[in-house]
Amino acid sequence: MSATPASAHDGQPAAPRSEPRYVGLATRVVAFAFDAAVINVVAILTGLGASLILSLLHLPSSLHTFLIGLAGAAFVLWSVGYFVVFWSTTGQTPGARLMQIRMLTADGTVMKPRRALVRCAGTVLAALPLFAGFVPILFDDRRRGFQDHLARTVVVEAEQLSIASARRATMRARYDAAKAVASTAELGQPLGQDNAAGGLHERQV
């Protein structure tokens, strides 16, 4: 994998890197399937908890109908919010992190919430005509689908460091910093001694 633009927040440009590698359809499908599983598992567990509580109450049938509609609306808000929050903060949902990909704007920055909402709506629209909106990903030079063109976004590879690699990098950085401080101290000590000797000589003269 080649390096990709570093993430940035609130539209700030990412650190310059080499040309990113754009992600194809298969990788996106796997990432989306994982995200869909997370969304549904949380929704099911929440629904079971709510059903258990409601089963202890004696509510009229009209209220049950209202609660079912409310649950449906809550599921839609939860699903949309899931993608909008992750896309507008890190550029990666859990599924995207698993597949080491990131959703960014065309200029390499993390999208703002409004753009993330537009992309979410574009994803739904792309799926409506028999998923025809995803076909351009197979042919576009930057692997963009309808939702990417609509929101002016791209999906790029985002190589992740393993926990062990990140820990080694941190320890290495600390070692280099300590070594630099020690070198500076060694260079400063003779200079201080020379200054003291010069002062003594001036007083003697």
Structural overview:
The chain has a two-stranded antiparallel ribbon. α2 crosses α4. It is flat, with a radius of gyration of 27 Å. It folds into 2 domains: 25-157, no CATH class; 161-205. It starts with 24 loop residues before the first helix and ends with a helix. By secondary structure, it is mainly α. It has helices spanning 25-55, 61-89, 94-98, 113-127, 146-151, 163-204, and strands spanning 101-105, 153-157. The longest helix has 42 residues, at 163-204. Mean pLDDT is 83; it is low at 1-10 and 12-16. The chain has 6 helices and 2 strands; from the N terminus they run αααβααβα.
- Integer-rounded radius of gyration: 27 Å
Tell me the strand percentage band. under 5%
Gross geometry: flat
Order of H and E elements: HHHEHHEH
Please identify the structural class as seen in this structure: mainly alpha
Strand order of the largest sheet: 1-2
Q: Report the helical percentage.
A: 55-70%
Let me know the largest β-sheet.
2 strands, antiparallel
**Using DSSP, what is the number of strands?**
2
What is the count of helical runs?
6
Distance N terminus to C terminus? 69 Å
SSE map:
Layout: H1 25-55, H2 61-89, H3 94-98, E1 101-105, H4 113-127, H5 146-151, E2 153-157, H6 163-204
Antiparallel strand pairs: 1-2
Quick gist of this model?
The chain is built from six helices and two strands, in the order αααβααβα.
Keywords:
two-stranded antiparallel ribbon, mainly alpha, 205 residues, disordered N terminus, 2 strands, single chain
